[in-house]
Amino acid sequence: MLFVAVGLLTAGSGLLAVTSRQVLHAALWLVVALAGLAGCYLVLGAELVGLVQLLVYVGAVVVLILFALMLTRSGGVPVVTGPAQRGAAALVGAGTTVLLGGALLAGSGWGAVQVAGPTNTQVAEGILGTYVWPFELLSGLLLLALVAAVAIARTPTGGREGET
Amino acid sequence: MIRPALPYLLVAVLAGLGVYGILARRHAVLVLIGVELLLGAAGLLLVTVGQTTTATDPAAATSGQVLTLFVITIAAAEVVLALALILALFRARGHVDLHADLDPREEAAR
Amino acid sequence: MTDSLRTAVRQAVDLVPDLGTWWLALALAPLLLAAVTLLAAGRWGEEPGYRSVRTVSVGAAILSAVGVAGTSLHRPRLELPWIDGLGVWLRLGADGLSIPLLLLTALVGVVAVSLHLHVPQPHRPEAPDEEGIATTSPIPVVRGTDVPGLATYHACLLLVVLGALVAFLAGDAILFFVGLELVLVPMWVLVARYGDPGARREGAALRFLLVTVVGSTLMLVGLLGVATLVGTSDLSVWAAQGGAGLEPRTQVVLAAILLLGLGIKVPVFPLHTWLPWVHSTAPTAASVLLAAVLLKLGTYGMVRLVVPVVPDGFSALAPVLGGLGTVGIIWASLACLVEEDLKRLVAWSSVAHLGFVVLGLSTGTQTGLQAALFGNVAHGLISALLFVVVGGLKHRWGDARFTVARAALRETTPHLGAALVLGMAASMGLPGLAGFWAEIGAIYSAWAPADDRPDGWFRLFAALAAVGGALAVAYSARVLHEVWSGDRLEPRVPDAVRTERYALRTLGALVLAVGVLPMLLLAVTAPVTELVVGR
Amino acid sequence: MSVVDWPDLTWSDLQLPSLPALPQISIPGLSVPDFWGAPMQWLVLVPALAALAGITLSGRSNRLAAWIAVGGGIVTWLASLWQLRVLLAVDGHHASGSVGPLPLGELDVPLGLAVTWPLALVAATVATVALVVQVYSRWYLWYDPKYPAFAATVSVFTAAMLLTVVADDVILLVVGWEVMGWCSYLLIGHHSTKTAARRAALKALVVTRTADVGFVLGMVMLAAGARTTSVSGIVEHWAAEAPTRGLVLALVLVVVGVAGKSATFPFQDWLPDAMEGPTPASALIHAATMVAAGTVVLVHLFDLLAVTGPARVLLALLASVTLLGGAVMAFAQADLKRLLAWSTVSQVALMLAVLAAATPHTGPDAAAEHLVAHAWFKALLFLATGWLAVLVGGTAMTTVASGARRYRVLRRRFAWGLLALAGVPPFVGFFSKELILGTAESAATGSGGLASVVVLSAVGASAPLTAAYCMRAWLVLDRPTQIEQHAVTYQQEPVERIDDFFDEPQVVHEAEGLERAESAISSSARSGTTLLAAMTLLGSLVALLPVWRVDVHLNLQLLVATLLLMVVAALAVRLAARGVRTRDAAARIPARASLAAERGLGADYAYRLLVATPVVALARAVTWFDREVLDAWVRGAGAGSRLLGQAGELLTPRRATPALALVLGGVLVLAALGVVSR
Amino acid sequence: MTLDLNLLATLPVLVPLLAAVVVLVVDAAVPGRRQPHLWLTAAGLLGGALAVLPGLAQPAGDARGAFCLATGQCLYTADRLTSVLQLTALAAAGVVLALAWGDWGGPSRTGRAPVVAALVLGATAGAAAVPAAGDLGTLLVALELATLPAVGLVALADPRWPAERRARSTEGAVALLMTSLVSFGLVALGAALWVAATGTALLSLPTTRDPVLLLLASVFILAGLGFKLSAVPFHAWTPVTYTTAPLPVTTYLATVSKAAALGAAVVLVRALGEVDETALLAVALMAALSMTVGNLVALVQVDTVRLLAWSTVAQAGWVLLPLASLSSRAVHAAGSYLVVYVLGTLLAFAVVVAVAETRGHDGGGAGTSLDAHAGLLRRRPLLALPLGLALLTLAGLPPAVVGLVAKVVALRPVAGDGTWWLAVVAALNVALGIAVYVRWLARVLGPAPVGAPEPVRVGAAGGGAAGAPARSGAGTDDEVRPAGGEPQGEAAPPHTPARVWVVVAVLTLLVVVWSISPVGIV
After folding, report:
1. Nearest beta carbon to residue B98 from set D649, D657, D664
2. Residue C426 belongs to what domain range?
């Protein structure tokens, strides 16, 4: 039941995050949704993941997003698309939900199961043992992403640079 | 004890919301928010699977959580790059509207 | 008498040394080398002179013809692994099916490269004035002295011949396909660059390329299907298996795809629309090659790749094929009755003749097959002859319309006139000339098709084909009436130049020889067709 | 009611009794060296080679061409005689091979040759007429630069006809048949600068070839049933069983083809037009070769024809209509050549008619015999007409009027020819026609059925008609002239034979006025016509040879009645001609009728209306359909793909989010598709 | 837990990755230099390529594994096909480096060279890692490693370009990034579903599986890969990004990225085993749509790069085509086709770069328009002939037999499988594709562009043309000639750098040799 509560919170704030017309509000609702997701992880017994979620997302990503929002004031351009596209988007979104939900529920059924996840030690061993190869690559990826981001940020871009 | 159906449902809802968010927004950062929700759905699914199925194989047992961690990290890397680009776009164009014409075909196609 | 003659011939044949696979090399290598040399020579530095280009290309064609002749005599086989991943081997060799066509290709190749390239006029002549007199002034036959791009032109011709030879020699389905594709780009260049600029040559060339590519790729799909099911692309294995182990349904599908693809190449009735345009645009030599060699690839492919390989499928589709062939005969002959462009008319008549070939094929009898193979070669010779004449006339007249008043060929250019008469007579299936045996054989075999063919339909086809024969007479007579006979002496155009005369005489003599002594060909193909049908 | 008790004669009673001894005269066991082949091979090969040589060797030299052509003709003629001798030696049937057999799979194609008695005589006749024509055309076309082509074509023509005669294979029949058609095209259109000649040639070719569709199909059907193309094999196969629908259809088709080539109704119209060809060509086509080929073919197939009722009836009807119609039309023509042409139409129909009438009992040889007879007198008439045309400058009735009076040398030739044509004893035509009459009568009273009755009545009716137009022609030709005295004087003088076969003949207008007809023709050509004239009389002996397979009783009452009718008709014509300035009885015919007859009663118009116009309309429709529908697909594919390309370019999202919609929508569709289809 | 590391096998990935780090370190140590970074990059790529060779040499069926678990499953597996793809990626990156040398090595205030070098190395390492991935985690990470730096490369335009042009390239990068983000979301979701379906993240043939989930998973992952391959309907970014990115980067996207994407598809299809036929329907649909749409739109393009972009879409269909029938042969066929495609595309781009460079280096459309290629055969036969070969390779026509063989290879599994509708669609697309490339080729072979709007005949030009030396010796049928002035190409004698010549020569040689003897295909 705890999960129902956290889940509802996550879903609700997620909904608001994608519908809110206020850019800033949307970002804040995202914070709530991601935090709710972290809660879900905790409820499911994946403490490590939950914490990482909280730290990386809520702590870092969202802060970045907020910064970006501040830096790119929308300047009167509408943030949402026209009603036609929104309708289509809703359709596609609902379709995704139905498809995924149907498939997942058909596979699992309503029955309850024991939560029996690996311990945090096992997860850590997994990362640094079994999955050390993707982990290595991941470090490379992070490095390069940062370098690229910095380089892009430093590069003088064209366009209306002078005007703004 | 937990009913896996519940998180699965949440996964479906979050994925749907993410898709909607991606499609319904034209502000680049807001599209990014949709993507985050989509990734969240993926993570939740991974964790749920990892926590509710019993696997003897350690590699399989940890894969749910480990993959979630990977996804989170990759997402972070992406966000970094994305935001840098969005800033660059803003500096170049003065907006971050993804609904603006991107295609310079008019110049090419005479 | 015949025995002593045979002995003499055999002894003469024995004098020819057996060079083994070197004969194959001699057949193919000169063409390739000469083509590459010519292509390269035109590219950097001074373009080679007219004389050297012609010497090289005619020499290569003749060498290659010698090689083909040797190959036909000794029938060497070459087997080399080529694309190991696909299991494709370089299997080259000649047998009864291919030898007539190989010889035809080699001969027509020599004829084609020796013909002079005419530079098309950039501007079309105006419409005829009120008196119906063409304003074209007589055009001297250009001997190619100052023709730009002559080296490229000859290289393309040689490559076309090369591709056709490879296809006919191929003992592997994929290799056959490669040969088929090899001719496309050179042919495209020939039409697009050296064609008649008044007839939108780029469009015609593109049409040719695309339509035939569709055909050959469809054929490829079928080939790959067969190759996968049989497990190899070796044609001899295909023929030996004879469809054993292939489901009838699969056979039908495979046969349909193969026939569709090959039908475009042939071309069979509703797929023929590309042919007249391309023919009316292409330069003479290209027309000659296209009609005499390239169209044969389609019918040859049917005999080689469909009839023995998927017999059940072929027999299921044969009525349709035969029907389309018959419709093609009637259709094209009717079109010839009102066609006003001589080259297009000859192209149309090709469609009709190949309709006879297809009809013969579809009957599933050895008679039909023999007639079809005969028709293949006969049409090759006849169409080559006709296109040499008609192409020459087009150069002289400035265009190929024959409804405007021209000087009567009989009075002004007797050589061209006689060749036209011979060609048209052969084209209408006159006995004693090459076209007859194919026609009568096709009609006969359609009347008495194989046991698993629907009699009624095929008899209808036979009757219609016979009517088509009558229509052929009508249009041939129409052409002769308009072009050959008459009392006009102006505008006077020059008669055939020396190379044209040689070409026409050779082809004409062969048309006559094959018509009078049909067993020259039939005896070569008989053992193979017996095998094909015999199972 | 029988007026007199006529003796009942059979044909064999009339035949010469001594001649059967002839075989014994020949060297028994004449072994022909293999190298030399059989004479029938030479019959075909020599003229064919002569043609080839004439074309390739002679170049522009008329002289060389003439040597080759006439030499070939002589050799052919000798071969035909040799053939007769061989046939005597081997007792009536001689077979040989040709280029065959062909490896044509299931179909047995031996390509054999064979001669039997009546056809050997036909072959000899053909060879003779061809030789005469070659010799004659050397003179007739002396100044023609295209003479080599003409001579070669005549040679090919001869070869083809002889092939048809000696063929024992339906394929060879078709070969000869169609080559003849083609040669007739070339010969009729020889003066290709003349529009009328070109048109006539085209018409001849197209009309006969259209009918040949039936011929070819019929032959194919016959061969298909028997699985062989050998005539003997076919006859054997089909005769073994009761006539089937297939056989009936096949023969009906063959009859249609024969009708085309023999200018039988409804294909009759090409033949009179073919008079545009040079006269030697007309002589060849009309006398012994092309139009007679149908008879030859049906003689080959007679054993089948005789048992196939519908084909016989069809043939009988067509032939009877043509027989009478042709005779009537001949009477109305205003041109001597056209008169002869229509007479050919009529006479050839006569041959076909008797074939239709004959039963296995009576045998077909009456037709072959009339073929031979007709060859002699018709060739004579044509060549004489050509000669006269050279002298007087045309063949119109008004031009040739009094011709036979002015040029006495022609008088006997015309007279004999016309008498033979009319069937007056003792000329060859009499015997052959009586034989025909006898055959028809025997068949009609025997088991011949409807066909025989029809034919008998038509033959009976045609006799006075023939007599009438012959009489008319003669009256015109023989009209007295004012300068008859001069002609007589000149005839008295010794004629200076200045010409030779290979010397240039005297210029014609020198002869004109002087009316020294002999000097206008080469002596060889002249002797050719003399030979023909002789044969119209001596040919009767041929008719009496015991080699003819005829078994008929001669009804003498009928014979006398026919002769009487002919006399009456001739007298009537004489009566009608009285008072006409040209002595032309046809002048009594209303002008419109005679004009219509000259134009072939609008057959041309009918052909155009019924065949040519619809076919051309169909052809236009086909080209339209081809261009606008079939090709439209191909063109449309090109234009369509460009259009689709433009559309694709336009539809491609140019903005980021719609592009993403494409992505996600695509995924959803693909996934849903997968799930649903599972 | 025991893990068999066997790092030697992973060298093809590790060497470029480490080289990237080294480049960054060197830049940190000695800032402001450019050439050393590029040389280091070249060395890294070369080292990687050398490290692939043992993998190539192993017999068919064997695989070099690394990071293997006790169960014998490896997170890194390289068999011959994998090695071929790796080598393709590395070599193509090398070619791109050669093409971009002048651009990246050019003067720049911002220290762009080391960043670009590191990004190239990193992305290439990712591309090399993808086909060897043994588990979903590696796949996810490697894919992103191959993608994200490439996005950076697109964004890092030449600072010498005009501002507007650079802004556009930023836009192109954003388009690419957004699509890649979404596709990553899809792949991640697909991976999660895969785990849910099979219970493990290892990409070995799973024993227990939920078919519906597995289907969904494969479709989601395929969609994500479809984006990288530019398969329809995931292709929308392609024309935008191709035209806005610097030409060498476009080349990179068209070749190395494709190798990575195909590697992932190969991994996935192999793991799917021989059962899942509905996923194959998705592949078949993608293939058919891609080739059709790509060819159709390419047919109306007037710019070579856009044409190549759409041709990439079409070729993606061809690459996917064999995968529509599951078999080992199909996977190899796709690999073979990809290699040939990469070869042809590299050669075409090399010539396009060379031609564009002679038309002024503004990165604008003028240098890459089809018109710029008109009469190339007359003007620059040494560029035109390789271009012709490249186009014919892509079209699949002799004399570029290798392209033809590639088409045969790609068609064979489908035809053998009996998926006739797909085979027929493919056959029709061969013709469409030929129409696309021949349209270009016709320009190359055709007459040189005419300066004046009205073509004037030679004779009529008279005195005006007297100044221009007659070029009749050059051997062209100059029916028309520019009335005044010289053809544009002649005005500024082209100077194509030697490295481009080398690239063109080597690639041409490869095409020719491979056309004569297409060894190693499949």
Report:
1. D657
2. 19-118+145-533
